[in-house]
Amino acid sequence: MSTSEPRTRRDERNARTARRTPSSRRTSPFARRSGEQPAGPRATFRQLLPFIFEHRPVLIWVAVLSVVGAFASLAQPLLVSQVINVVEASEPLGGIVWALVALVVVSGVISGYQHYLLQRTGEGVVLSSRKRLIHKLLHLPIAEFDTRRTGDLVSRVGSDTTMLRAVLTQGLVEAVGGTVTFVGALIAMLIIDPVLLGLTVLVVVIAITTVTLLSQRVREASHAAQAKVGDVAASVERAIGAVRTIRAAGATEREVAAVEAEAEGAWRMGVQVAKISALIVPIAGIAMQVSFLVVLGVGGYRVASGAITVANLVAFILFLFMMILPLGQAFGAITSVNQALGALGRIQEILDLPDEDAHDRELAPRALIVGDANEGLLPDAPAIAFDDVHFAYASTQQDPADPANDSPDEHLPEPNVTERQPVLRGVSFEVPRGRRIALVGPSGAGKSTILALIERFYDPSVGAVRMGGLDLRALDRTELRAQIGYVEQDAPVLAGTLRDNLLLGSPDATDAECEHVLRAVNLGAVLDRDAAGLGAAVGDDGIMLSGGERQRLAIARALLAAPPILLLDESTSSLDGVNERMMREAIDAVAAGRTLIVIAHRLSTVIDSDRIVVLDDGRVVGEGTHAELVDAVPLYRELAEHQLLV
């Protein structure tokens, strides 16, 4: 109930978001999180190995092929040298030429097959990393989503994981065969002419030293570039999500400019990576050219002096090219690995965060399973009870280098926060089984936070929330939530069909049951207006439905599961009088014998409640029936008068 506009869960959420977010200059009428993103932990090569070793059998086979190809390549200069000697002696070539051709063909076939295997395995690495990241994202504590941008998280799944492919496709595994080629070429060159080899090694050492010094800068620049890509994704997701509001406010061009500014920032960081990479890439080519010129000049002099033969000089030059080629692959591998490690740092930052239930065993070594209708172990206890509950939202995000449970539970390690914003201050009340309780109060009083604590999206800082007499922290989360049907005021409709949305919480429900619950919440017209029936698409975020229809669909989803406890956050606020009456009848029917807790603003909801709890500034200021509270609680009387409740 409100004196001006409906007090919504969004008001409460926005209020605490504003408390967390430092003030900054805005280029748009919509709030934007300010400040640079935390740098996040730097990934190490050891952290990259698990992603690669998942495909160990294929990579071993690729390494074997690489070694075979290396020996085939090393044999070619020897055969060329033999061909030159035979030609100089004016003798028939015989089968040497055919052996040389066979080696070239075998090397080509091995190289092509190797390329295919590496590309396929690279895609496998991307897939496995995405699976890990998706699994982790959907199991993170709700508090993490309070402080992170959706677009940035999506970017880590899409863009950052793609960077891992380059580790396999740009020379890392091929370096096994390249090492054989490199060492074999060095040995052959040492046998042919140690002097020429010494000059060549000098050039190579200079090149390797330069690449080593530049590789660290590639990793740092790549991490920063991927973070900027995440900022772009977050900005685009935010603008598209509010595109109607942006158009209506005449803010389109300002939003375009803001998103373009983020895109330009990503471009600048990408150019920075390109600049550093541009210093590394040509080093192999320069080393090869300098080595070739040195060998050609000094080698020609040594041929003229009789130190080596022409055939040996040609073989040495061929081995030189074979030595430089894997060196170039190694330089490419260093660059790709450092770029991948920059992206992996952002991936690992999320993977290192604890799951929502990571500390549950510390809180309750033996998590209990509650039974049907919340009988638990204490059948005479109230369905829900709050016992001197204090709760505060963290005002800053925890240090990503020291991931700890973001829940402000008194039993868990304290996150790295500068201050906390109290929301609930010593809240105590009970909800008897099978009764209907209404929570009323001004915006920001803590009503939606109470429902979030019952769902155990957060744990209290002090005190306890109990179900059936048992502390929620002693209950298995999955079983706990199976006992609760939760309908947010802004309950999202998932892109897909009506059936998809209904089956989200009741995957085994039949089509007949789905149709029955839809008609019960007055969505029969939606069901009938499309020939696809339950298969009718609802559009992204339910755009094909009206606001009231989206809300009723969310309620239908909860009613279909028919849990022992229903939590309704202003569930009828978007409905007109006729639909509200039909909705109330549907809720009354399904709520019979069940516990119902509603955040209420309307006369009908309040009067129908068995008991009303009045909240103000995180405290319970009154409890009783409508008539009792009108007489005893001034705040309730004021709210009631403005809502025509008396």
How can the largest sheet be summarized? 6 strands, mixed
Q: What portion of residues is helical?
A: 55-70%
The overall pLDDT average reads 75
Question: Radius of gyration in whole Å, from Cα?
Answer: 34 Å
Strand order of the largest sheet: 6-7-8-3-9-10
Shape: elongated
Number of strands: 10
Assembly state: single chain
Spatial gap, N to C terminus = 13 Å
Structural class: alpha/beta
Total DSSP helices:
23
Residue runs with pLDDT of under 50 for 5 or more positions: 1-40, 396-419
Strand content: 5-15%
Show the helix and strand layout.
Layout: H1 9-20, H2 45-53, H3 56-88, H4 96-137, H5 142-147, H6 150-162, H7 165-169, H8 174-192, H9 194-241, H10 243-248, H11 252-305, H12 310-351, H13 360-363, E1 384-394, E2 420-431, E3 436-440, H14 447-454, E4 462-467, E5 470-471, H15 477-482, E6 484-487, H16 498-502, H17 511-520, H18 524-528, H19 547-561, E7 565-569, H20 577-591, E8 595-599, H21 603-608, E9 611-616, E10 619-624, H22 626-632, H23 634-642
Parallel strand pairs: 3-8, 3-9, 6-7, 7-8
Antiparallel strand pairs: 1-2, 1-4, 4-5, 9-10
Could you characterize what this model shows?
The structure is a single chain. By secondary structure, the protein is an alpha/beta fold. It is built from 23 helices and ten strands. The chain has helices spanning 9-20, 45-53, 56-88, 96-137, 142-147, 150-162, 165-169, 174-192, 194-241, 243-248, 252-305, 310-351, 360-363, 447-454, 477-482, 498-502, 511-520, 524-528, 547-561, 577-591, 603-608, 626-632, 634-642; strands at residues 384-394, 420-431, 436-440, 462-467, 470-471, 484-487, 565-569, 595-599, 611-616, 619-624. The protein has a six-stranded mixed sheet, with helices on both faces. A four-stranded antiparallel sheet has the order 2-1-4-5. A hairpin with a 2-residue loop joins strand 9 (611-616) and strand 10 (619-624). Helix 3 runs parallel beside helix 8, helix 4 (96-137) packs antiparallel against helix 6 (150-162) and helix 8 (174-192) packs antiparallel against helix 12 (310-351). The radius of gyration is 34 Å and the shape is elongated. The model is unreliable at 1-40 and 396-419 (pLDDT under 50).
